[in-house]
Amino acid sequence: PLVRQLADLKVHKQVANKYMIPGLWCDILVSSTTWANFLALRTDEGADPGLQILGGLVADALVESKPRSRLKWQVHLPYIDEEDIAFAWDYVPKDESIGDYLKMWSAARIARVSVKPFDSNKKDYDRDTALAKDLAESRPVHISPFEHIATALEGSQGTGNFGQASGWRQARYMMDQETFREFHWKGKVIV
Fold first, then answer.
1. Nearest residue to 38 (alpha-carbon basis) of 21, 24, 52
2. What contacts 127, CB < 8 A, 6 or more positions away?
3. 33-66 as b/e: b if 16+ CB within 10 A
């Protein structure tokens, strides 16, 4: 009833929907090579009970998982499957990189997890390509979907949530990023 009342008052749906969050299931994507701190915090008896359950489920999944070794230069591409790889051979122009397109499609599908859930079971490669290019070329750049895509490297170098000693480098760190050194707000400069 409260959410409907807020909608009737023309309160933005993003605000009104926050009252429904405790009862909703939400999809999230987490990519990481290090879990100890997350699990210690989320399974602690002082943590939110819902997060304790989530922490336990993640710990169970990690205990049951069978990690696979990756070869140097192999890429972690969430939401990309064999069908996408096969399709790329005909779709991607011969003078362009199939790997770059697979990364774009992965980033677009990752973005839809938070921006708009997958609204169809039908893949739309043109739409995925356009969304990824928009994300990467926007100013300021909307680069967070690219942090789930990572390339296996030799040695201990790593970035972000893949851990410094993980041997993985996130795609966001291989892209042209715009980092703001100052921000202008109401005639003031914030550094």
1. 52
2. 108
3. bebeebeeebbeeeeeeeeeebbeebeeeeeeee
Cα(148)–Cα(122) distance, integer angstroms: 22
Predicted local distance difference test score (pLDDT) of residue 126: 93
Q: Whole-angstrom Cα distance, residue 145 to residue 157?
A: 21
Q: Which residues are within 8 A (CB) of 174 and not within 5 positions of it... i.e. 6 or more apart?
A: 151
**Residues in the chain, overall count:** 191
Instruction: Name which of 34, 35, 78, 28 is nearest 56 in CA terms.
Output: 35
Give the global pTM. Answer: 0.74
The string of pLDDT tens digits covering residues 127-184 is: 999 999 998 888 877 888 888 999 888 766 666 667 666 778 888 877 766 667 788 8
